[in-house]
Design brief:
Elements (H helix, E strand, L loop, with lengths): L4 H17 L2 E7 L18 H8 L2 E3 L2 E2 L5 H10 L27 H7 L3 E7 L26 E5 L11 E2 L2 E2 L9 E3 L29 E2 L2 E2 L3 E3 L11 H16 L4 E6 L20 H23 L6 E7 L35 H4 L4 E3 L7 E3 L3 E2 L3 H9 L15 H4 L10 E5 L6 E5 L2 E8 L2 E8 L15 H16 L6
Parallel strand pairs: 1-12, 1-13, 2-15, 3-16, 4-5, 4-12
Antiparallel strand pairs: 2-14, 5-6, 6-7, 8-11, 9-10, 13-14, 17-18, 18-19, 19-20
Helix pairs in contact: 2-6, 4-8, 5-6
Bound molecules: calcium ion (CA).
Length: 493
């Protein structure tokens, strides 16, 4: 339906209404947290009281999605509003990977900046730094500050990859120039200790890969030397990010702000603070969920302390579905018991079945959002367009190609619609899922062989029965729709 002049006028008025208020925005992204990993979605093996509170005071989406089933592509799309498969090098980024999002690209941070917001990203980045590669001992740019953020405190890649240092704005924090940081993918010297040569010294053993440089008793992917004063303990990551987030919020409480809190929990290596060890009964994976829940509670508390609860929109999401053994022997499998990380859905991280991308998704804005549960389809890729609308920012014509303004649905407004069609991709953009209403088309490429399966999600949450043969017209329609979307893959912002 083409919008009428009246509709456009009312949409503009709506946008103006929120833009005048300039609510603060706190986006909390968990890492590898599954649909079924939180107690408000039905988990009974562990409790997530803070996330549950956020959901009880806001909207919990049962069809909330991220756009890809691994970290880097989802984060690329979350920031840019464009599908990762359109761009080069958006699979899992290596330690020395360059900045994937080029300066000048519109992101939710650059959009809200137009409206006078201050913004920070605190947590895991994993979108590369520098051009053509990171200069670990010099200026680390381009990075978040070149695409709209005013401040960053980052884990530069992901914690199972080297190096374990904080990047604050353009520098490695606390780096001693007398002890330069070297990062590489080849062993720096024959006597360099690795997870293979010094396996007996590890406090967390690896199960596959993850056996190169050792730091803090944990071997990683990749090699590094130096930068000893700059290195952190894995156990302190969440505390430091929460503390720095609180400080940053306090410093911005009088201006509209956007905080992107990108937790590392519950990605491997799962090594939460000692105070969480053994607390979930599900091993370190469950303990990391408790730590993530604690972070959510601390951020809510910080907003409350500044009396900003009714002026702040929280959005909680995850970057992909769950995984158990992802390279370390942390007993995630052995201690799982009856816990179902994906809930009723099939697959998890790396998969284009629902469990790979249908993940926790909660919004809260006290006093504005009527609490409830929504079955509307919402996705992390829609945040740039929706937040632009919320703040009154204008999206340039060539930007945020796949982001839809679904703000009314995100705010739980009555009869508001989410997405009609949602594309889900795997790490490298080789396999895809297409959700359209109750239908889900799965397009997989295995050894160059293409296959399509069709599922009726209304009757078959677990995508167990391929009904492509019973519904040839639906299959044909959705294959054509997906093909037309993929044909546009070269179109870039
Ligand atoms: Ca992830």
């Amino acid at each position: 339906m083409k919008p009428t002049t009246l509709m456009l006028a009312s949409m503009a008025a709506f946008s103006l209404l929120y833009a005048e208020e300039k609510p603060n925005i706190v986006i909390i992204m968990a890492d590898d947290l599954g649909w079924g990993d939180i107690s408000c979605s039905g988990a009974t093996s562990l409790k997530t009281p803070h996330i549950d509170q956020l959901a009880a005071e806001g909207v919990r989406f049962t069809s909330g999605y991220c756009s890809a089933s691994t970290c880097t592509p989802t984060r690329y799309s979350l920031l840019t509003g464009t599908y990762a498969f359109r761009a080069e090098r958006t699979g899992i980024a290596p330690p020395n990977g360059p900045a994937i999002i080029k300066p000048g690209t519109s992101t939710f941070a650059s959009l809200v900046k137009q409206s006078g917001y201050q913004s920070a990203v605190i947590g895991k980045w994993h979108l590369g730094l520098g051009d053509p590669k990171p200069d670990w001992n010099g200026e680390l740019k381009p990075g978040p500050l070149e695409i709209g953020f005013d401040h960053c405190l980052l884990l530069p890649t992901t914690n199972d990859r080297v190096p374990q240092v904080y990047v604050e704005d353009h520098r490695v924090r606390h780096l001693d120039p007398a002890d330069p940081l070297w990062v590489g993918d080849k062993i720096p010297s024959p006597d360099h200790p690795t997870g293979i040569t010094h396996r007996g010294t590890l406090k967390l053993d690896w199960s596959q890969g993850h056996n190169q440089t050792i730091h803090n008793g944990i071997s990683r992917i990749g090699f590094y030397t130096g930068g000893q004063k700059a290195r952190y303990r894995d156990e302190d990551l969440a505390d430091e990010w929460v503390n720095q987030s609180k400080k940053w919020i306090a410093s911005k409480k009088n201006t509209p702000f956007l905080l992107f809190f990108a937790a590392h929990d519950i990605h491997v290596p799962r090594m939460p603070h000692e105070r969480f060890h053994g607390k979930s009964g599900l091993g370190l994976r469950g303990d990391s969920i408790l730590q993530f829940d604690w972070c959510v509670g601390e951020l809510m508390k910080s907003i409350e302390e500044h009396k900003l609860t009714e002026k702040t929109l929280f959005i909680l999401c995850s970057d992909n579905g769950p995984v158990l053994d992802d390279g370390y022997q942390d007993q995630a499998v052995e201690k799982l018991g009856s816990h179902k990380p994906s809930g009723p859905y099939r697959g998890g991280k790396y998969s284009v079945f629902e469990g790979g991308t249908r993940t926790p998704f909660i919004t809260r804005w006290k006093g504005r959002i009527a609490p409830g549960v929504s079955d509307q389809v919402v996705c992390t890729i829609d945040l740039p367009a929706s937040l632009a609308h919320l703040t009154g920012a204008k999206i340039p014509a060539d930007a945020c190609l796949d982001s839809q303004n679904i703000l009314p649905a995100l705010l739980g407004e009555k009869n508001a619609k989410g997405r009609e069609v949602l594309l889900q991709q795997d790490n490298n953009g080789k396999s895809f899922g297409l959700r359209a209403g109750k239908w889900k088309l799965v397009r997989e490429t295995n050894k160059e062989k293409l296959s399509h399966q069709l599922f009726d999600l209304e009757k078959d949450h677990g995508e167990k029965t391929n009904v492509a043969a019973q519904f040839p017209a639906e299959r044909k329609r959705l294959v054509a729709l997906l093909d037309s979307m993929l044909k546009e893959r070269t179109r870039q912002p």
